[in-house]
Design brief:
Length: 252
């Protein structure tokens, strides 16, 4: 039985004060909730103040990006060692806003994934196709390429530190989510791919999240699908009541 996982990606939103307030609202409402795994990923400058707020709760801290090197002359970057030092448990790798928007290559994403896991971080690895790729019937080809270019870099035991997030690019921040059936189709295919490449045990245990315009109205139907093990939430994670309702949906 895979435990449901709800992660909030705050992207480049909040101020120090609103980040603290949002985290406080979540802690007050969730407290020691353990039926669902919950993580929030604030912007880098607010990791430490948010960590303070989360310290007595079960909500885990995550970062939105990481550089593959542990240290060095990489202006503006943040290393996996630094993220661990700041109390991060999770990191998002391969988000489409970085793959497509910032031109991150498969190779760079693979290096980040490997470095993050080697330094003790749990990784949310995002995959997903654009609208034109879906329209051209290439969804599974794109997803397969993203999986093949990243996961084989890891040893079997390292794969236990990865959660996949299927995030169709056309659904991110658009208000148009994939239907539960569309998402389930890809999730089931990904799970079969995992089974074929890494064995049935890993395929049964590795969690696959859905991401893309998830909100309190559509979360339950997405989370009811057999291969959807949680959600990665952008916009709706910025409002405590919305995010809490999504967590509630994951409990049912
Ligand atoms: C995301 O940032 O990963 C995301 C899914 O965003 P949104 O929920 O806003 O579509």
């Amino acid at each position: 039985m895979r435990k449901k996982f709800v992660a909030g990606n705050w992207k480049m939103h909040t101020t120090r004060q609103t980040a603290i307030s949002l985290a406080q609202e979540l802690v007050t409402a969730i407290g020691q909730e353990t039926a669902v795994d919950v993580a929030i990923c604030p912007p880098f400058p607010y990791l430490l103040p948010v960590r303070e707020v989360l310290s007595e709760s079960c909500i885990a801290l995550g970062a939105q990006n990481v550089h593959p090197e542990p240290q060095g002359a990489f202006t503006g970057e943040v290393s996996p060692v630094m993220l661990r030092d700041c109390g991060c448990h999770w990191v998002i790798v391969g988000h489409s806003e970085r793959r497509r928007g910032l031109g991150e290559s498969h190779e760079f994403i693979r290096r980040k994934l490997l470095a993050a896991v080697q330094h003790g971080l749990q990784v949310i690895l995002c995959i997903g196709e654009t609208k034109s790729e879906r329209d051209a019937g290439q969804t599974l080809t794109i997803v397969r390429a993203q999986l093949e270019d990243s996961l084989p870099a890891l040893k079997a035991e390292q794969l236990a530190h990865v959660v996949l997030a299927y995030e169709p690019v056309w659904a991110i921040g658009t208000g148009v989510n994939a239907t539960p059936e569309q998402a389930q189709e890809v999730h089931a295919w990904v799970r079969a791919w995992l089974g074929a490449h890494f064995g049935s045990k890993l395929a049964e245990t590795l969690r696959i999240l859905y991401g893309g315009s998830v909100n309190s109205a559509n979360a339950a139907s997405l989370l009811a699908q057999p291969d959807i093990d949680g959600v990665l939430v952008g916009g709706a994670s910025l409002k405590a009541s919305e995010f809490l309702a999504i967590i509630q949906a994951a409990k049912c």
